[in-house]
Amino acid sequence: MSVTSPGGKESIITGEAIELEVRPASVPLRALAGAIDAALWGATALFSITMILRYLPPDNAAQGQTLVVVGIAILTFGIPFVLEWATGGRSLGKTVVGIRVLREDGGPVRVRHVFVRSLVGVVENWLTFGALATVVSLSNARGRRLGDMLAGTYVVRLRDVEATAYPLLMPPELSDWVRTVDIGPIPSALTTRARIFLTRAATLNPEARRTHAEALASEVEAYVSPAAPAGTHPERFLAAVLVRRRNEEYLSYVRAEERNGL
After folding, report:
1. Is the dihedral of CA 197, 201, 205, 208 positive or negative?
2. Using an 8 Å Cβ cutoff, are 232 and 174 in contact?
3. Cβ–Cβ < 8 Å for 52, 71
4. Distances (CA, A) of 116 to 42, 81, 93, 101
């Protein structure tokens, strides 16, 4: 989930309620990553062409042309697609320079996002030698190329800004209750506020912590039925609800991947 602070800095909230500051990757940094990848693909192409010329019968030009076309498709689309999907939004170049592709909401990319980026990248990065991607990236604040816009993604640099954050765990005394309740569509902004609060609660003074916990619990209670057992601590109530939501979102993601045959 992606959020923007009053100062204009963007951050995402992970499933473990850890806040990460996200900085859109600069165009030069993305260009460097692209150059590294292009060098790798170029070396692979050179090796492939050498092998084709060495083992292809000289009187079979049609087969040679077919192999060249298939090879170009694999190098410009197939390999980038498989690598970026398998690594969750990275490539060799992106890994070297420390950047990654994320969805617009801060979540990890899925196969459809990578497919669109890779397909459009054939035109942006290869047919125009990166010129189209550079022009489009320079024209928007996040440095998104056309493939990112169509796929709903952007490239970021991540830095953990909440190193002392703790994983979000299910309170044992509420595990039975939370399995039986109905949880409505809690607004994403409210969920984000609750997660950030639980992450930073230990740093607040007792009075502010109590006030914030009660206020957030009161808001979240409107979407939960039946109510939590009498005497439930507001922070533990929030944790129980958020853990269940997180688990359900994860199961939804796994089932979607299974339906896609992944």
Report:
1. positive
2. yes
3. yes
4. 22, 9, 19, 13
pLDDT score for 123: 93
Cα dist from 129 to 13, 31, 43, 116, 125, whole Å = 36, 11, 17, 18, 5
- The answer to whether 217 and 234 are in contact (CB under 8 A) is yes
End-to-end CA distance of the chain: 23
Report strand pairing: 10-13 vs 19-24: antiparallel
The tokens 């150059």 sit on which residue? 35
Mean pLDDT by 10 residues, the chain (262 residues): 49 49 82 90 83 74 79 88 90 90 81 95 90 92 91 79 59 92 88 85 86 94 93 94 88 76 56
H/E stretch holding 103: strand 100-103
> Are residues 90 and 157 in contact, defined by beta-carbon separation less than 8 angstroms?
no
In this structure, the number of other CB atoms found within 10 A of the CB of residue 104 comes to: 15
Among 161, 168, 178, 194, smallest CA distance to 229 is for: 178
- The structure tokens listed for 136 are 């489009």
104: Cα within 13 Å, side-chain hemisphere: 9
